[in-house]
Structures
1.
Amino acid sequence: MEGKESIFSTFPGKQELLEWHSKQKKQTVPEINGHIHTPHSFSAFSSVDLAFQMARHEGISVLGINDFYTTDGYEEFAEMAMNFKIFPLFNIEFIGLQKDLQEAGIRVNDPNNPGRTYFSGKGLHYPVKMSENSGKKIKTLQEESNRQTYQMVEKLNEFFAENNIELQFDAAKLQKGLAKNLFRERHIAQAIRLAVFKEESTADGRKRLFEKIFSGKALKAPLGRVASVENEIRSNLLKAGGTAFVPEDPKAFLSLEEVIELIIDAGGIPCYPVLLDDVNGNFTDYEADKEKLLKELVKNDVYCIELIPGRNDYEILKDFVSFFHQKGFVITFGSEHNTPLLDPLKVSCRGGVPLGKELMEINYEGAAVIAAHQYLLSNGMVGYLDGRKAKISEKESFIELGKAVIAYFQKP
C-alpha cells in the first residue's frame, strides 16, 4: 500500500523552515476545507480534479480528502494538490459500532442508528504506510460494504422483474461505471435515477415510472433536483423497510477501539466527527451534553474533533467549538460533499452564515496541527501523538510549524 513519494521531499528541516516562515509577510487567515469525499467513496465531484478546480476558484488554500474505508485516492489527491498549490490533508473515515451503546439505544453521531459511530483519522502517512493487519481490516471492510450493495442490486432486479418494470442492473458494471473500488448505496440510487431518465424522456413518463418503482407512492422531489430525487430513491428502496434493503452484517463494522488502533497504526490522529444540532435544534443522546461528551472523548484518548458547519446553527456551533477549543482540542471544519449536491467548497454555517474570524482561526490552527504532523511523520519524526496521547501542551508549537509547512508548500 505504498504511494509514490512524500510531498515534503524537497522541504528544509524544521528549524530552517520556521526561520524561513518568520521572514515572510504575515498572511490573512486562509479558507480551509478539511473534509471532502472524492469518487473513491461517493462524492458530488465527478473527479478529484473538479474538486481542486472549484477550490482554486473559491480561494481555498487547504483541502482534506476524507473518503470512507480507503486511502486509494491519496496519490491522485497529492498530485492535484501540487499542481494547484493547495495544501493536502490526508484523512480517512470509518463507521464503527459501539455495541454497548447500541444495546442501550444511545445515538452517537448517526441520528437513526444507536451505537453506530462515524469516526475519522487525520493526517495519515503519505505515502500510505500501515501494518499488514490494518491493511487486511480495511480490505475486509471494503469487501463487506460491496457485498451488501451487490445484494441490494440483486433484490432490486427481482423486484423489477416481479412488477414488470423494464429495468435490470449488473452490479459489476455499475461499480465499474459509477464507482472506484468502493461501491456504495448512493451509487445504486444514482444508477436508478439515470436509468429512469434514460427509459422515459418526458417529465410525466419519469414520474409515472418512479411511482411504479415506489410501489404506488408519487415522487415528491422536483425532477430537476438530482440530490433530492436520489435521496428519495434511497429512502423508498434501499433503507430499512425498502424493497431492496439489505441489513448490514456486523462484520461490516469495527469496534471504536479497533478503528482508533487502525488510525494510529496508519499514522493518523483519531478524530470524532460531531453531528451537533439538526434543523429542529435536536441533538443525539451522546452529544447533548458537552461535558459528558468531553469525558467520553478523553476516556478514549480522542483530542480532535471535526464539524460540518453547513448543517449547524452558527451560535450553537460557536459555543460548542469555543468550549472544546479551550480544552486544547484540535478542531477542523469541512463540507463532506458525499451526496450528489455540488455545493460550494467554502465552509459556512447553516443558511450560508459565514464562519467569522474566530472560527476561521480555529479551523486554521487545526489544519496547521495536522500539516505539521504530516510533515514530521514523513521525515521520520514523531508527530502530534505520543503513543495514543495528544501533545496538547505542545499544540502551539505544532500550530506554528504547520503554518510554516502550509506556506512553504504554496510558495511560488
2.
Amino acid sequence: MMAAAPKESEQNGDAPEARIVVGLDTSLVTRDALALAARLAASVDARLKGIFVEDENLLHLASLPFAREISFSGEIRELDAERMLRAMKAQAESARRMLARIASEAHIDWSFDVRRGRPLAALAEHAVEDDTLVIRAAGTGSREVGRTVRAATREAHADVLLVARGAGMKSALVPPAPSMRGTLQSPLPGRPVAAIDDGSSPGEACSAFAETLAARIGAPFMRLAARGLSPADLATASRQGGVGILVVDAGWLGNDDDAARLSAAAGCPVLLLGKERGPVEGPQKRGG
C-alpha cells in the first residue's frame, strides 16, 4: 500500500515533538538552508516548520512620506506600505510552495507560519526546548546573529543550526532516499562530524552526542580539544579537517559575535546545543 504524501500539519496535544524550524524567503541561499533543514528533519524524524517573517522595519520604512523606490528600469516612485505588504504576501506564498515541494521530496511532515517582526528575532521568540532553529548568518550582522543564538539556546534551551554563505550546506548531509525515511544519511565521504570539547561536563556531553550522531550516519568522528584554544583556532582546525558538521555546546561561546564568526570561519554548518544531551537515540515511529 502506498503511503500518503507528506502534508502541512500542526502539532496537536501536549506531548512535545521535535521540530526543525527555518526562516524563509525566496533567495537561493534560503533554498540551500531549507534543503539542509529538510534532510536534518528526515534524519531525526522531526517535523519541518517554515516561518516567513514580514519585516516590520521595511513596512515602517514604506510608510514614511519621503521613502522612494527605484525599479529595475530606473523608474523612481513613492513607496507604498500596502503595496509592499501585498508583495510580502506573494513572497510568503512562494516560500510556502518551496517548503511544500522540498518537504515532499524528503518525505516529511511540514507546517508554515507567517509572522511580523525582525526576521531573526521572530524565529527565536517562540522557540521551545525541542526545536532546532536553522539560522542563516549570511547578510546579517554578527551581533544580531549572536543575540538570536543566545535567546534560542540559553533562554529557550533550543538547539541552533547556524549556517553562513559558502558553509558547505549542500555537502553536510546527502539527501535521504525515500525508502530510508527516519534514518540519518551519511555526509559525503571524508566529511566527519566534529565536537568541540573543552573538558567540562557539558563539553563531554556534547562530544558524546556528536560521536553517536556520527556513528548513526556512518561518518567519521573528530574531537577538537578546546582547552587553551580560541574559536578562531578551532574554526581553522575544522576547516583543515574537512568537517561536515561542527557540534558545539552553546555555553562554551563567549560574546555575541563568536557564533557568527565561528560559522563563517569553520566552513561548515555549526550545530549549537542549547541543552545538555546524551547520545542520539534511534528514530522513533510516529503513531497514526
